[in-house]
């Protein structure tokens, strides 16, 4: 009987074959039985996109009259009430005018004294001084004339041998003294005051006139009147109050012309521009919305509490005396607008590094990584300028927060 050489399989090789077959079976079973990942998705649509920046601000009048006390005093009467409309020239309040009247009288007295001093200087002295000077001048002339006669007479006697040379010399000495005295008196009458003396007198007169003008203004301000038409919106004082110079007495403004001083954080300043539309809200009237525009953009950055902000002026376009001064409001500036552009929800956009934006398109129930170009981005949506069409659908995220999206992932879109 013939013999056959039979080879036995290596046990390790047999075990590897069995394990490989088992893995293949498991993969095939899972490929036919696994469930698709459920994801939320959104269609790429055309919409109008608005990017806005909200912040806080304070209302203030554009044309405002803040009445302040010109000098310390007592309020004698208040002639208007808060909320009252006034015309230019309307009397607002009266101050006690006794102190102002006394200051005016003192200033007028100083002015008259300065005027008299300058007049005397220009005339060469006061009337008494001029009379005394004329007397001195007359006496000096008589003395000079008499001394001259004595000299002439003694010289004639000397020629006849009746007078000595010493007597003539003595008479000539007296003549020189008289002439010198006459010259001094004449100089006093014509050159008594110097140029600096006149300049000092003129300066004193100018100062006195300024003092009178200030006193007259202070007296005129005893009756405080409104220089503009508007509404009285603040009276921080009461009748018989004593107020210091510079203290606030009353505020009047045209409440149809107001503005808002708003403060924007430093990163947002570059997005602001003059003319941008603004929406204004006030908690005091939650059912009312005001509108305005940016009239002045920030010119510098300042510290505002713990924030670094830029100060922006916003003109209110539809105020009707219903937005009160000094109220705190919320303003929202529209910095960018796009009309009828492709957009997607913001959560659908992914960023890889600092340069690449992409989305996961849903194609035949699988995810496909698609690079996109973006435009305006607001809080909820993103403008798509390239990479998608209005026929595409993008994944927002898996319903199971533990599952990450990836390219080629089989998915099931759920509502």
Automatic annotation (TrEMBL):
It is found in: Cell envelope. GO terms for cellular component: cell envelope. InterPro entries: UPF0194_transport. The chain crosses the membrane at residues 12-32. Keywords: Coiled coil, Membrane, Transmembrane, Transmembrane helix. Its main location: other. Residues 154-188 form a coiled coil. The keyword Transmembrane helix applies. This is Efflux RND transporter periplasmic adaptor subunit.
